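Hi all, long-time lurker, first post. I run a small reading group and we've been trying to get comfortable going from sequence to structure in the token notation. Rather than ask abstract questions, I figured I'd post a concrete chain and ask someone more experienced to write out its structure so we can walk through it together at our next meeting. Sequence below, copied exactly:
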Amino acid sequence: MPTYTAPVRDTRFVLENVINLPGMAGKPGFEDFDADMILPILEEAGRFFAEVVAPTNFPSDRQGCTRNDDGSVTTPDGFKELYAKVLESGWTTLAMPAEHGGQGLPGVLGFAVEEYFTSANMAFAMYFGLTSGAVEAIELRGSEEQRELYLPKMSSGEWSGTMNLTEPHCGTDLGLLRTRAEPNDDGSYAITGTKIFISSGEHELTDNIVHLVLARTPDAPKGTKGISMFIVPKFIPDADGNPGERNSLSCGSIEEKMGIHANSTCVMNYDGAKGFLIGEENKGLSAMFIMMNAARLWVGLQGFSQAENAYQNGAAYALDRRQGRALTGPKDPGESADMLIVHPDVRRLLMDARARTEGMRALALWVALNGDIAKHATGEDERQAADDMVQLLTPVVKAIGTDIGMRVAQDMQQVWGGHGYIAENGMEQFVRDARITQIYEGANGVQAMDLVGRKLPMHGGRAIQSFFAMVDKDIAAAAGNDKVAELATALEKANGELKAASMWLMQNAAANPNNAGSAAYHYMEILGLVSMGWMWLRSAMAASAALSDGAEDAGFMEAKILTARHFAESHLPEAGALRRKLQAGAETIMAMPAEAFARMG
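-- Answer (accepted) --
Happy to help. Here is the structure in token form:
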């Protein structure tokens, strides 16, 4: 079975040395935070999730969930007791609002801990994961009565939350949804329809499940302008706020999935279920986007959390498995073969995995920190600047983070060779579990179109121009530092490719929207490379400074600089090729007749 150790040292390095979380202490939203909290929180969370949760990952995947004849769902053995242990530990309430029973610490700390949870058992972590987004949506758009009724028990984890968007005929295009919401005499609505792919839609782990459901009222306009959002609880709360009458909703089936078998991904049937409008009628999509944006960052985290787990097991195998001889001569002459780690191609896979995973961890934590600032800053300029970065880079964290999860999981399976294909070794589970992250919360191609179509031009390109300025500033600050000179030069070139790609889109997308569509993914990949390269420059600068100051963990710092150099040599040069692919435009791919895509004969 695979093993897992939380990457506490690396997370701490990012929080303290790369994004300077200690410097936020005492600022709005960080009043209860102290820099001395970072290490004990990470160490204890890492121990808990590695020792208590991670051992359940493999067996729960093999067992899966069971739908019973009455429509209830039973999760894998031990999950109910494990859920209680997680609640008792307090890790899931770390960043929940203090006014609703949470600990009120910065979201970025909760995000860091969430990585450990998701690496330990992604399918199990999903029973908690969407609840925080549902809490935020109700907090921002719900009535005072709704907030008082639902948020304390959802924040504590006593009740869980879901989001219900997709229907059998309606995936990304939510304007096609058909679920109906008929007004009742008491001010509630009767919700009727079928939703699919509902993560954690039915289970026995909590006393209640609070579904946030998109539906249409009778006179709603067509398309996305006619969507409303409703709270539809599994049990309707009674006068005391406790689970009361069973609502008329049920799990019709559990989806048969490629991965995350231990999560109950359900087809949910609503048969006149009682629902309660959140916010304004026909304004449900904007309310759901509050939840979706939080979920997109979380999905990006799911991607690199699977990459981390796969990397650890790939590296352990390469350090233990003997296969062949080093190209320069035997390293262990007394043994029948050398370790896999001596082979350059194996090292290439491991270095790629390390560079991608650690680079995305740093970027995701920096975006999460900006999310805290955007939420709590009192100065409008500071709040706006932080929100611009969250808006611009959320699609990148989601899409590139999940691409990394899949790529690293596959590469580490390759390190294991044929043994990586055997289920009992666990490597194929990382591949299966990582695959869904590229699809849900908006497939990665949709994220690219969101980036190019909405985020890039917003406010006249203000966000991307600010991004360019920050990257250029750090490149200039690196001048004269021999340890990071190669990375700074490579990053400057890649940032130049990003600027050229941005200009090409400005000049060509409006005249032919298909140019934006064909270029979007390549553009997102370039922005991902530059964003991670920027984080690697910051990391290398911090490691260089630590070495100059006589760092006790010099080996860790040297490894940081070497990994940054690898990213500069092997990854940043891809920006030029991607820019040239982007500038090919849409003419060729759109010239193919639709019927020609079907093979004939």
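A couple of things your group might point at:
The chain has a mean pLDDT of 94.
The chain has 18 helices and eleven strands.
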